[in-house]
Each structure stands twice: as structure tokens, then as C-alpha cells.
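Components:
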Amino acid sequence: MHVVVMAGGSGTRFWPVSRQARPKQFLNITGGQPMVVETCDRVTSLVSDEEIILIVGREHLNETKTLFKGRDVHILAEPVGRSTAACIGLGAVYAAHLGCQRPVVFMPADHFIAKPAAFVESLKQASEIASSEAIVTLGIVPTRPETGYGYIQWKEERPDFWKQKAYRVVAFVEKPTTDKAKQYMLRGDYLWNAGIFVATPKTILKALERYLPPVHQGMMRLVSAFGAGGFENQLEVVYEKLESISFDYGVMEKIEDAVFVVPCDCGWSDVGSWESLFELREAEQDENGNFREGECMLIDCKKSFVSSRGGKMISCLGLKNCLVVDTQDALLVADMKKSQEIRRITEQLKLKRRNDLF
Amino acid sequence: MHVVVMAGGSGTRFWPVSRQARPKQFLNITGGQPMVVETCDRVTSLVSDEEIILIVGREHLNETKTLFKGRDVHILAEPVGRSTAACIGLGAVYAAHLGCQRPVVFMPADHFIAKPAAFVESLKQASEIASSEAIVTLGIVPTRPETGYGYIQWKEERPDFWKQKAYRVVAFVEKPTTDKAKQYMLRGDYLWNAGIFVATPKTILKALERYLPPVHQGMMRLVSAFGAGGFENQLEVVYEKLESISFDYGVMEKIEDAVFVVPCDCGWSDVGSWESLFELREAEQDENGNFREGECMLIDCKKSFVSSRGGKMISCLGLKNCLVVDTQDALLVADMKKSQEIRRITEQLKLKRRNDLF
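Structure:
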């Protein structure tokens, strides 16, 4: 079995800690290690390091090599970002190149999982189903009527030959309104789409061939380059022309045959905002519901997130639902409820051409 | 006429900008200049620089000399702080030493005055009354039922020989409760005690002789040292033994004879907290009632005070009634309503022996 860890994305939702050139998968926002390392470590009971294929943006290649020094993970660098269809295609041809014919797990490098054992168990289940040329997704059991995630609707079936807890997918659904999200919770046949897929390289490539032929053709050109030695050059030529399209949109939403979902209750979060990070680190909160990191003094504060990452002591007095993040060169103070709107700050910084800060 | 500017106090109410070793009179919190400079500049229409006697703590002597380089103000350094009775005594004997027999203004270096012309006018009135061996205080016309100030109760009189707007003082009153403060506002015969006195050196020394004989004796020893050259040594010897007592408590509250008050409506503030500073700089607030200083970006913020003094850009999102002050080595984020409780932070810093930060 192989695991493809997709670490190519960029984003500044954790500004001022995350920056354009320093996306969250390379930050240690969920614990002691950068998320990309935690993501790889999470599957070590499932695969050895040599069975991990890590796909990063070229600008992060050196940093990644440093992070994984002494480990045998395969590291591939995308010359430019081309969304998940290309990345999954690349992972599939590379896994095949390594001789893998068994199911491969494709997963983002910037998610948090509170219960890794449950997660690995679900991957094993998914893998068994995926052996039969199916594409299997993990469907996260919703814990709230979240409007920030896509959903997967399933249909109950009990196919004898599996004896697995898995369902046939009826539809992939875009981010819903609040009303719809509440309905989905009540109905119970909707799961969160975590963007985690399990399938054999062959199945992935067949799906690309059918639904995204240009991406498939690009990947085939890479296959011929593996032996010839000019892989990196060819990767650049191929990626330059590739369409940037997500695997969900380009393949999963269009596919009509065998797509299955394994429900998974593993404390998953895509960690999309400071507020969601605050919530998932609940166990580390003090008796007043405050999370603190680095040197800080909190007096009469409630439900606040205070992070000192610039070496400076932060003193807080009488705060409530407040987000304070200090780094070497920038400071954020925000109402926690507004943490989804951080982009309003980074957009301003972009307009002001403060390239040093975003 | 002479003016004694008392700049010896220390305090950390404007932490993290003010520190034990850097009290607010040496900071530029109210505008472009350190408060001690603004205080002296405020009376330049009344006296020349040679008629200003500036009394500072010894630890601030060099800084003061630098601030007043090229100006002829007299600068005296107290070896230790001994509250206002000693400081006013020192100012009185020094003014007498300079040949002054006319009334002297004694005033703190760390007050803000929005209408300096009205202030100077009141000092002139007070000075005329003080010529006749009276001690005259300025009484600030209250604009709110403030519980943080002492009050002066007056009794209406119309002595013919003055034709001045001045009243005989009935009592000096300690900081009142909220109920009492409201009563004082309604009655109209209570004014705020700003700690600003006008009296001749002779009158001051007579009052000290009567109510604080040890302080008076100390001052007399200084007088004999003026000619002999060993003034600084003698100052140290005298101050070492002096009681630390305020002029209000030691003299004004006990005095039974001629004490008068000149009501003054000059936009006075003792600038006792970040909140009071925020209020008195109202004119500089933006359309959402925010005050900003240094490089900062405010999005969806209301009635907040954001000061960047450490060279770092501060980004604020969705704040309300919030106080954010960043300096080179410390950061404060507080509910504006709690700005009177800053000492809770500095006390903690003291306990933690963070001498670098308080």
C-alpha cells in the first residue's frame, strides 16, 4: 500500500503565522510538528516511509527535504500548482512507477485528526473496497451543520462480498446553506467530504482518462520520462499546460460507476480558521476556556486564543472571544468570530504591496 | 513670577509604554512632545525659561538635560522621591534663592490641558490672590461624576478688594464614592483637585513650618547650603531623612487660614489611564471612534485604541472598546474598561521578577 500526501496548496487563513510563501501545512499550528510531518506520522502504522509519496510545491522542496531528513519518504515537487486532479494523477503514476498495484491513499497534508487510530481503521476499510477498481472516499460523520464543507450523500447497500461498512455514493454536494446543512444533519445520509480518496493507480488513471483526458495524457508523458531520466524537465513541460481543476469537480462529481464512501468518525477538521483551530485544541484550554502559546499573561480573560510566536511577552486583560497572534513582523488582534475574514487583512496587504507581510 | 514643574513621580499606568524607570511625564503620550516639555511650553506666555524650576528624579536628570538642551530652565534633581510636600518645599526655597518674592506656580509635569489659554488665565488670577499670603489652588470644573479625583469644596464670598473669581476653600475631600461624586456634580460647589498650587515662597515655607516642621527644618538646611556650594550633598542628606507626605494631606487639608480656589475650565486631565488618554484624544479618532498611532490596519473596529510603538504593523479585525499597545519588548491587549487595572499586570511582572518589563 502507498500513501500520497498532497502538500502543494497555499493560503493565508492563518495569517500572520501563515503567509503566501509559508502555507499552513508547513506550520506547527496544531501541535509540536509542522502539519505535513504530522500527516505522514499519522499513517506510519499503515505504511513505511518508503511507501509515502509527498507532493509539494517546488518552492518548498528544500524545506521539505530538511523536515524529512533521514527518512525515506519520496518527495516530488510540482513546478506550479495545478489543483488536486493533477496532483492525484502525479501521485498515481509515481506509485505505479514504484511498482504499486494496490490501493493508494490520497490525502491533503493540512488536516487535523484527533483520533488517528479511527482514521487508520477507516483507511484500511477503504483500501479493501478500493482493491476492486472502486474509488473510495472517506466521509466524515458531521458533528454540526457546517456550511464550510462539501457533503457526500450515500445510499445504503449491503453487498455480500464486502461485509464492510461502506456505502455507495449518490452525490457529491457543494457547500450548503445553513438550512440545507441542518437538513443534512437530520437526514443522516450526508457525510463531510474531506477530500481523502483511496484507489489503485490504475483506477485513478482510468477515471482521469475518461473524465479529464488532457490530464491523463500529461500523466502518460510523465510515465515515459521515468526511465529516460528527464523526469523533472518533462514534469515542467507537462504541468505548464495542465488545466487547474480539482479531482472532486473534474472526476468525482461526474463519475457514474463504482464510487463508495466509508463513514469515518475520527475527529477530523480541515483547520480552516483560527477559530476552528481554537476549537480543536479545546483540551489545552485553561479553566476560563483560554488557549495560550508562548509567553503570555492572561488576567480576567475568557475564551481567548493568545499566541506569542515572536518572542515577545503578551499581556491580556479582560478579553473575551479574542484572538491575539504575535509574530516577529506582524500582529493580529481580532474578534474570534471574525477569524473567517482574515483574508480582508491579507487582501489589504496585497493592495498596499506589503509583500513582506502576506 | 516663577513656575515649579514637579516631574519626580513614577508610575506604570501606561504600561507597556510607561515603565518604573520611564514614567509618563517623560513620554509623548498626549501628542508630539514628552509631557514634561509640553507642561513647560504651556506656561511660556506667563514666564520665561529662566523662571521655570524643573524638579526631577535623579535617575532622569540626564534625560531632562537632553530634553531641555539650549533652554535656560533650572533643573533640580531629587536624590529620592519624597512626595509633593518635600518637592513643593524644595521649589519654594529654590525660587526664593533665585530672588523670587512673588507667587510661584507649583504644578505636576504629567497633566494634560486642552485649553492652555484658559489655564494660563486662571494661573494669573490665582497669582493675584496669592500675592496676599494666601495659598491658592486651581479647582477644575467637573465634567462628570469622577471617582478617581479628590475634590475641593468652596464657599461663595465676594471680598471687594479682589474683584476676582475666587472662592474660599471649605474642605479638601478625598476620592468620593460614585453616589457622592454625583451629589457633588449636582451641588455645584465642588471642584476637582488638580494638585496645582500658587503661593509665594514665604507663604509655602510658613505653612510647612506650621504643619510639617521637619520638612521645614530640612528646607532651611538647604537654604544655608546654597551659598556654601555643597548643595547637592546637603540635598541628599536632607532628603534621606524627609518624611514622604503629600502637600495636600500634610498641609492643605490641615490649614485653617487663607486658602482659596480659582475655578478653572481648561480641559484638564491627569491622564490617569489609557482610557482617559483615549477620551482626551477624541478629536483624533476616526469615523468609527478609533484612535490609531503608528502603522496599523483597522477593519470593522469601533472605539478602539491601537498604538504601534515597536515598529510592527498591527492588524485589527472586529474589535470593540479594545486597547492594543505594542512596544519593542511587550504587548498589551485589554478591554478599554479595564485600563484602570493595568497595575494587575505590572504587579504580576514584579512578582515574576521581570525587571526588564516593568
